[in-house]
Write a structure and sequence with these properties.
This protein is an alpha/beta fold and 767 residues long. The chain is built from 25 helices and 27 strands. This is acylphosphatase.
């Protein structure tokens, strides 16, 4: 999608003038140079275009300058996004007759790195045309599509700076590269079956294995993927056994959005997200229960092909249909697609990694010989009633840019959190947030983290950046920060709020809440449901949710019975309620020695309150993955769920919830309908958060509120709180492009560190 932020300056009709135009934004690797060259040739102006460290420089002269400027916007390349165009008057170069594409200036500082792009329509037409030289070629690309971020070693974006440098162009590709009217003119990623990358096994073998119910590992754009037929329960069970995720949901790939609608309900916004160039996994309400794919949930992750490889798999599975109309038709074919990694490892990017991690678990390992410079998982977004928002950034949204128009930023390297980690760099007037790097709880993931950190520093040529890190001293990321004045510790929940402020360019005073599972407080205590007044980036901690004894520390997130037991004791539940824990020895120990409860550290964590409510409502005690019980609790309120009349009673069930959380837990105990109880708890939590924010907004006389933290990925809670605050006259801001969970922490760290650095400089100036 092209964004026109301001018009290119219109020049006077003086017979001969020369100007320089500096284009900033998403302007490298999108076919900008060929586009401008063809326009200049058509209008008869001279000059040149080149990539440089700031974006793209165009110098142009001639009597047709007005026409050049007017027509420039008419047909910009589809991936282009111009954020700024600066004009400078230059002296005319006497005797210059031609317009050329000049050699790029050496640069290691990308202005707006481009993500990997799915095949364009014209490439798809060639891919399935038996007379085309690109027929069935999985590495097809042109100036408007193909890999970008995953193959880039350094900038500017030229072939020599990518892993395509290993593949010299054949004579036919060279001719296309040099032909001004060809869409592959000056396209840096092009190749063909004669000169380009290739797979080490025929894709027909992959298709045959999937058709036979097998599980395959194949190297895609950002790394290896595990793929099987979504209609084969035995294959799905094998995948789950290997990844040690018997419950955690899996995503499917369908041919197109019409096919996806056989599985999920898509809104207009969801359909647009699914088909966007980012091609994310979209979490949407499922049409039917999916016991094999998403146990205990009423939503499902779906995506459509993001590479020629995926389209070729559907082509083979569909029986090799003729033409291209089948690409738009609804298809029953669906594939389970999961990141190709063993438990505790990041996505495998090389054949060696794939053989070591995956070979013993799959029927076939298929790789190619194009090096993946930047391994990257698929991004994830979620559909809600009021639009879609990010859950995880990845392929398609890697190194996502957040402009900061207020002031020029000092150079910052923000190291992120421990879970769902990302890295953010502040350079110039923007923040750049890395792809999802996962939970840093294993040696392999920490090695990948270090590699990405080094690569991003190299991209931007950082040498003396201020380091921002979490306040928690035991986080791996915090331990990567140097000692001394070149590093600053940022409180976890301050960073959550600041990430939303960065995304929405907020500097005015506001109130905010950060609700999640855990964060290291200013005095080392466990935070997780914190309210703030923020003025000029100074945070005042003004309120918090009701405290709950944290039994077992971090284990509580996977053992929700601990939070449920603590909540029941606070609610003074009767013996008949407490007996549900009789089969848990440690729970009996707590009940026999209640003083242990008083010694447990308190936490206001919204995540633990959700765990407590979910364990009581779902009547289960153990979770397989972090956040499982809150997801299942929210799933009960899916308006498209499959349980009939009870579903329609969910809204009425919580007509008068208690907004004191201990009393709210007491209200749940006599309820017999899980759906009604889930509705009551969500309404009570939303009331609690909303009332506190509204009260603080009145005290501090502000009209803006920020909702932050991982619990705000819960669509029901997010929408209910937003609605209540809007009714009270507050303008509400939530994370949209950057995930609200810990994946956004690094962005918040970078913004606050930049402010603290500016503040320190201003103090020195005054001194």
């Amino acid at each position: 999608m092209t964004t026109r932020l301001k018009p290119l300056p219109t020049l006077s009709a003086t017979p001969m003038r020369r100007v320089q135009l500096l284009l900033r934004g998403q302007v490298q690797g999108v076919g900008m140079r060929p586009y401008v060259y063809r326009l200049a040739q058509r209008l008869g102006v001279s000059g040149f275009i080149r990539n440089n460290s700031d974006g793209v420089i165009v110098e142009v002269q001639g009597p047709q300058l007005d026409h050049f400027c007017q027509q420039f916007w008419a047909q910009l390349p589809p991936p282009a996004r111009i954020e700024d165009c600066q004009r400078s008057e230059l002296a005319v170069r006497v005797g210059e007759r031609h317009f050329t594409i000049a050699q790029s200036n050496a640069s290691r500082s990308p202005l707006d790195p481009l993500p990997d792009l799915p095949p364009c329509d014209r490439c798809l037409a060639e891919l399935f045309n038996p007379t085309s030289r690109y027929f069935s070629y999985p590495f097809i690309s042109c100036a408007h599509c193909g890999p970008r971020y995953s193959i880039t070693r350094t900038y500017p974006f030229d072939r020599a700076n990518t892993s395509m440098a290993a593949f010299a162009l054949c004579p036919v590709c060279t001719a296309q590269y040099r032909a001004a009217e060809d869409r592959r003119f000056h396209a840096q990623t092009i190749s063909c079956p004669t000169c380009g990358p290739r797979y080490d096994r025929p894709l027909s073998e992959v298709v045959a294995s999937i058709e036979a119910g097998g599980l395959v590992a194949i190297q895609a754009i950002g790394g290896y993927q595990l793929i099987c037929d979504a209609h084969r329960p035995a294959a799905i069970a094998r995948l789950r056994q290997f990844k040690q995720r018997q419950i955690k949901p899996l995503a499917i790939m369908t041919l197109n959005s019409r096919s996806a609608q056989q599985w999920v309900h898509l809104s207009d916004a969801g359909r647009a997200d699914l088909q966007s160039p980012e091609r994310p996994i979209l979490i949407a309400p499922a049409r039917n229960a999916q016991a094999e794919l998403a146990p205990h949930l009423t939503s499902l992750g779906v995506m459509v092909p993001n590479s020629a490889l995926h389209y070729l798999l559907f082509y083979g599975l569909a029986g090799r249909p003729t033409g291209t109309p089948w690409l738009q038709a609804a298809s029953p074919i669906a594939l389970v697609v999961s990141s190709g990694n063993a438990p505790g490892y990041p996505i495998a990017a090389t054949r060696i990694e794939a053989e070591a991690q995956l070979a013993g678990a799959v029927d076939l390992v298929v790789g190619h010989n194009r090096h993946i410079v930047a391994p990257v998982d698929d991004g994830i977004r979620r559909q809600s009633r009021v639009g879609c928002y990010a859950v995880r950034n990845g392929r398609g949204t890697a190194l996502i840019k957040t402009p900061w128009h207020q002031t020029k930023l000092p150079t910052i390297l923000a190291l992120g959190a421990q879970q769902k980690c990302s890295i953010t760099l502040a350079v110039g007037n923007a923040f750049y947030t890395s792809e999802h790097l996962g939970d840093l709880d294993s040696r392999a993931r920490r090695q990948r983290y270090r590699a990405v950190n080094a690569r991003l520093n190299d991209y931007f040529n950082l040498r003396h950046a201020l380091i921002a890190h979490d306040l928690h001293p035991d986080y791996f990321t915090s331990q990567q920060a140097p000692l001394g004045r070149s590093a600053v510790a940022i409180q976890h929940h301050h960073a959550h709020v600041a990430a939303v402020m960065a995304e929405h360019q907020l500097q005015q005073p506001l109130v905010a809440v950060a609700v999640d599972g855990y964060g290291y407080g200013l005095r080392g205590e466990a935070w997780g449901g914190e309210f703030f007044y923020v003025n000029k980036f100074a945070f005042s901690h003004v309120d918090r949710l009701t405290s709950l004894p944290l039994l077992g520390g971090e284990r509580a997130s996977l053992e929700p019975w601990r939070s449920a037991l603590a909540a029941l004791i606070l609610a003074q539940a009767g013996d008949h309620q407490l007996r549900r824990f009789a089969d848990i020895p440690l729970a009996r120990h707590y009940l026999r020695q209640p003083h242990l409860l008083r010694k447990a550290p308190p936490t206001a964590s919204a995540g633990r309150w959700f765990d407590a409510a979910a364990a009581l409502i779902l009547q289960r005690n153990w979770a397989e993955y972090d956040g499982q019980f809150p997801l299942e609790l929210e799933a009960l309120l899916n308006p498209y769920a499959f349980s009939g009349s009870d579903q329609r009673q969910a809204e009425r069930a919580g007509a008068d919830p208690k907004w004191d959380l201990v009393e709210l837990i007491g209200q749940l105990l006599p309820m017999t309908s899980p759906i009604q109880a889930a509705g009551l708890f969500h309404q009570g939590m939303a009331d609690c958060i909303s009332r506190k924010l509204i009260a603080q907004a009145k005290i501090f006389q502000v009209t803006r509120a920020v909702l932050a933290g991982g619990c705000m990925l819960n669509a029901v809670l997010r929408e209910q709180v937003r609605a209540r605050l809007s009714e009270a006259g507050l303008e509400v801001f939530c994370a949209q492009r950057i995930p609200s969970n810990d994946a956004g922490i690094s962005l918040g760290q970078a913004l606050l560190a930049a402010h603290y650095a500016d503040y320190a400089v201003s103090l020195q100036d005054r001194g």
